[in-house]
């Protein structure tokens, strides 16, 4: 079968040099595994980290990709919940399922956790014509959700749902700031906050602001401006006039990190919450601690989530309340071009790649 393979790292981000479409062996199901085709798969930033070989050296040769949707073509003898022909999507958090963290519902904190398609291998990831996962890492795609939408949602709706619902305990009527609303997680963050009937202020680059509003954001602000936070503050005062609530942000959703972190803290109300799942601009944020202790702010970390949380998000997609924002679709042969586009940030939502004929 065909797969997108690399056999060396590209610390210079020259993906065309290392990414090749190769023939690799088709998987055979282990007792607890589901074998399924790739009808659509999606890019994530961990694919970039893998090709760079940092922050961890991934196994080589490597097939990347953590999000994929397709049809079941074989199951192991112990698999009970899936059959040939089922439409399925991956859940990329590989956990032991028996430790204290896993059995307490915190599988994302399992000490043995691996992110499938990033830390796994050799040659075990989404970007192949056929792939395999344990039964516990596969979910059925709801009616009304396409393969493309499911692949685009897999890791990102899981991450966004866990951030807002699982960690930050979002409640109706809050004023929510979604940083980077044009990203995969940001585009779902906007919609989840609107599902909870919140006032949503999204930030993005200028070319993405209207698209954020199309997804449901009530306001959209250019976060590349030095004084972007002043515009957000002015919006919260406008909201306060019409609702009678205190100006400020109740909950801010962050994955940008270093460059924007402290300004988010300044915007939060007393008792407000910042939840973070990443730091695409850097990890070394300068923080004025007075905003945290004096206002009683909650700063929460978040990574991945549970399979149940992913399925909650997929359920609402099936109900038509949340949709995947798909920027573009590439072939396996165009994998280098697709990853370069993601690195440059010139996209809105998710970028997909597919094998020929999918």
How would you describe this structure to a colleague?
With 358 residues, the protein is α/β, with parallel strands linked by helices. It has 2 domains: 2-140 and 325-354, Medium-chain alcohol dehydrogenases, catalytic domain (Quinone Oxidoreductase, Chain A, domain 1); 159-301, Rossmann fold, CATH 3.40.50. Helices cover 29% and strands 25% of the residues. The protein has helices at residues 15-18, 45-52, 100-103, 147-167, 184-195, 209-214, 228-243, 261-267, 290-293, 307-318, 335-344; strands at residues 2-6, 20-23, 33-37, 40-42, 62-63, 67-75, 87-90, 93-94, 114-115, 130-134, 138-140, 175-178, 199-204, 219-222, 249-254, 268-276, 298-301, 326-331, 350-354. Keywords: NADP. Residues 17-353 form the Enoyl reductase (ER) domain.
Write the layout of secondary structure elements.
Layout: E1 2-6, H1 15-18, E2 20-23, E3 33-37, E4 40-42, H2 45-52, E5 62-63, E6 67-75, E7 87-90, E8 93-94, H3 100-103, E9 114-115, E10 130-134, E11 138-140, H4 147-167, E12 175-178, H5 184-195, E13 199-204, H6 209-214, E14 219-222, H7 228-243, E15 249-254, H8 261-267, E16 268-276, H9 290-293, E17 298-301, H10 307-318, E18 326-331, H11 335-344, E19 350-354
Parallel strand pairs: 12-13, 12-15, 13-14, 15-16, 16-17, 18-19
Antiparallel strand pairs: 1-2, 1-5, 3-6, 3-10, 4-6, 4-19, 6-7, 7-11, 8-9
GO molecular function: oxidoreductase activity
Protein name: Zinc-binding dehydrogenase
Domain Enoyl reductase (ER): 17-353
């Amino acid at each position: 079968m065909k797969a997108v393979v690399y056999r060396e790292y590209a610390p210079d981000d020259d993906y065309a040099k290392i990414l090749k479409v190769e023939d690799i062996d088709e998987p055979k199901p282990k007792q607890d595994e589901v074998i399924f085709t790739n009808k659509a798969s999606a890019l994530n930033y961990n694919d970039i980290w893998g090709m760079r070989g940092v922050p961890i050296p991934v196994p080589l040769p490597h097939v990347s990709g953590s999000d994929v949707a397709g049809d079941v073509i074989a199951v192991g003898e112990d698999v009970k919940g899936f059959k040939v022909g089922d439409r399925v999507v991956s859940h990329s958090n590989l956990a032991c399922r028996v430790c204290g963290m896993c059995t307490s519902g915190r599988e994302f904190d399992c000490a043995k956790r691996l992110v499938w398609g990033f830390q796994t291998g050799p040659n075990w990831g989404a970007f192949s014509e056929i792939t395999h996962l344990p039964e516990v890492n596969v979910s059925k795609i709801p009616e009304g959700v396409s393969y493309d939408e499911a692949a685009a949602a897999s890791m990102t709706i899981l991450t966004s749902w866990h951030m807002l619902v699982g960690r930050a305990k979002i409640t109706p009527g809050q004023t929510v700031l979604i940083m980077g609303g044009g990203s995969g997680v940001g585009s779902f963050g906007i919609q989840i906050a609107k599902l909870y009937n919140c006032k949503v202020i999204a930030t993005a680059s200028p070319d993405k602001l209207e698209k954020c509003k199309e997804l449901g954001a009530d306001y959209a602000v250019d976060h590349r401006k030095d004084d972007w936070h002043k515009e957000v503050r002015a919006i919260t005062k406008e909201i306060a006039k019409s609702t009678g609530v205190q100006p400020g942000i109740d909950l801010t959703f962050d994955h940008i990190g270093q460059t924007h972190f402290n300004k988010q803290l300044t915007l939060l109300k007393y008792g407000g919450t910042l939840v973070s799942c990443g730091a695409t601009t850097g990890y070394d944020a300068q923080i004025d601690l007075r905003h945290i202790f004096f206002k009683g702010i909650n700063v929460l970390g978040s990574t991945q989530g549970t399979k149940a949380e992913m399925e909650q998000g997929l359920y609402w997609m099936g109900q038509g309340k949340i949709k995947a924002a798909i920027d573009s679709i590439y072939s396996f042969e165009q994998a280098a071009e697709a990853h370069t586009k993601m690195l440059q940030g010139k996209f809105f939502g998710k970028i997909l790649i597919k094998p020929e004929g999918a």
